[in-house]
Amino acid sequence: MAIKKLGKQTVKFKNPPYIIATSATVGPKEGEGPLKDYFDTILEDDLYGENSWELAESKMLRESVKKAIYKADKNITDMEYMLSGDLLNQLMSTSFAARDLGIPFFGLYGACSTMTESLSLGAMLIDGGYADYLVAVTSSHFSSAERQYRFPLEHGNQRPLTSQWTVTGSGAAILSAYGQGPKITYVTTGKVIDLGIKDPNNMGAAMAPAAVDTIVTHFKDTGFRPEHYDLIVTGDLGAIGKEITEEMVFDRGYNIAKVYNDCGLLIFDNQAQDTHAGGSGCGCSASVFCGYIYKEMIKKNLNRVLLVSTGALLSTTSSQQGQSIPGIAHAVTITNM
Amino acid sequence: MAIKKLGKQTVKFKNPPYIIATSATVGPKEGEGPLKDYFDTILEDDLYGENSWELAESKMLRESVKKAIYKADKNITDMEYMLSGDLLNQLMSTSFAARDLGIPFFGLYGACSTMTESLSLGAMLIDGGYADYLVAVTSSHFSSAERQYRFPLEHGNQRPLTSQWTVTGSGAAILSAYGQGPKITYVTTGKVIDLGIKDPNNMGAAMAPAAVDTIVTHFKDTGFRPEHYDLIVTGDLGAIGKEITEEMVFDRGYNIAKVYNDCGLLIFDNQAQDTHAGGSGCGCSASVFCGYIYKEMIKKNLNRVLLVSTGALLSTTSSQQGQSIPGIAHAVTITNM
């Protein structure tokens, strides 16, 4: 019997890894939002001195890793693994950053759920005795994502009110067997859930059932109730997905309303910044966690957090072929002990 | 100190997981090649009864998983994790298969290195005490890959002699803490290596330096010499990449010639089947390992194998932006004990 397994989908760590440092980099628009004081680096322009948005995203990811390592008082060569992914085809921003950094590398793809995928696997690698230090990181970029998934920006198309705004941002976390900081104590790995949503401009609704499934499974596997947490925070469901999630979790017997929020709603002022249903993209929960949440945990304003990054596993090909949008969500418990 | 770590990039398992069953599915062309008697399923046509090549690839992956689980005498619900990826944007074939199978899912992207990425992380999850049973799987499909990366097939363009033929195939392996079969004993995780090759029709040359780096690091970390192995087999370097690898490894002090081969050369008769430099794609090393190598290990004709799947981290965007092609390779030691 797997000795660290709780219930069907949850792991309880025997030697919970520390998150000894984080770093969050965001674009200019994110740097004008409500969380502006929590980010480590705010870009003045979203090309970041590069020749393309894709290279700018890659630089953002690379620099976030370097800054997190610096804040952990370690060197790049101390990092035994880099677990990372992004939204771009073939993980372009991640692959090129991994080339420059030279850290042994596992490429991940979980769409916007990638931050908790990297934290989950990273925590298992530390607790399992395979590494003392590693970095979990991800990124997204508004302009590179729009070019790839929707329309070239030059097209100037109108965005429906259900649509979300891809966050230009990257978050990197250093996990360690030693040191101090909040610990990763539980991981609940999600299944791919698809209730048949086909509208690529309504990702929140497509991802919500996966978030619900993972949150409810987490409660069942661990025996925790919502009151166990100071904050339960989904990745980037936005206004519509958050409302659906809260109701569906309630229907399954858990009232999370008092402690529940969504990174896609925290990062922008949707009214003032015209971001419609909220933020999205791998960089959304990554920069909100590595910026706002981690720093509030260090200050002990938050002590028990369930981070549930959520991903829509949509490709332009599957969309053109009339397929619906599968969603996935992974949950990670982070605890001040 | 990470207790299971050897040298810089290698893990030595304390409780090496068993590979209790595998299944390999291939397309019609692969089914006419030299390894035809080793595959579990050979498709009669590469649409496999589906409406698109992408859906056919997804079905191939899903059916490989189901057959491997059946051969292991287990049920789908016994599988605690599915670790999988493919070449398609947003892992379309994997995501849709994971949706149908309903197994907790970690999406991976390592281009053609994905089979050893999934075996590496899978072995860590079993040895670490997080699961008793899981499935590691990947796929590729000639027609879906050509459409995405190069030209629509209808274009009928001529292929240069350095080009490789993407394998239509999928391989699935069931890893377990119990049972019998060959064991995964060591894992050497690769770095992204890029020596500046820019020709997307010469992937072998682009990936070879990564294979060399991982193989030489494996020898240094473990203290093994090439003679330790009955077979050292790279993923899909093809004729050109294999020759480069053999020479570069020799220059670094190890003569692997007597035990070295490449999955991309094993799967096709390049002359008779007009596949130029050999096979490629995630499904290449996956189907050759899960078909030929695993079955030869069960028969004890092979007892110590170093499987080194190799990936070219090329995207059409990075290629159009004039970037070179980064490569990566992960090595896994599989031993009859």
For this entry, give a set of tags.
homodimer, 337 residues, alpha/beta, Peroxisomal Thiolase, Chain A, domain 1, 7-stranded mixed beta sheet, 6-stranded mixed beta sheet, 34% helix, globular
Describe the structure.
The structure is a homodimer of 337-residue chains. The first copy, chain A, is an alpha/beta fold. Chain A folds into two domains: 17-176, Stage V sporulation protein AD (Peroxisomal Thiolase, Chain A, domain 1, 3-Layer(aba) Sandwich); 183-335, Peroxisomal Thiolase, Chain A, domain 1. Helices cover 34% and strands 23% of the residues of chain A. Chain A contains ten helices and 15 strands. Chain A has helices at residues 53-71, 92-101, 114-127, 142-149, 203-222, 238-251, 263-266, 270-273, 282-298, 316-320; strands at residues 5-6, 10-12, 18-26, 41-42, 81-86, 105-107, 133-140, 165-166, 169-176, 183-188, 231-234, 260-262, 279-280, 304-312, 327-335. In chain A, the strands form three sheets. Chain A has a seven-stranded mixed β-sheet with strand order 1-2-10-15-14-11-12, sandwiched between helices. In chain A, a hairpin with a 3-residue loop joins strand 1 and strand 2. In chain A, helix 5 runs parallel beside helix 6 (238-251). The longest helix of chain A has 20 residues, at 203-222. Chain A is globular and about 55 Å long. The mean pLDDT of chain A is 95. Chains A, B: Pfam families: SpoVAD. Chains A, B: InterPro entries: SpoVAD, SpoVAD_sf, Thiolase-like. Chains A, B: This is Stage V sporulation protein AD. Chains A, B: One of its GO terms (molecular function) is acyltransferase activity.
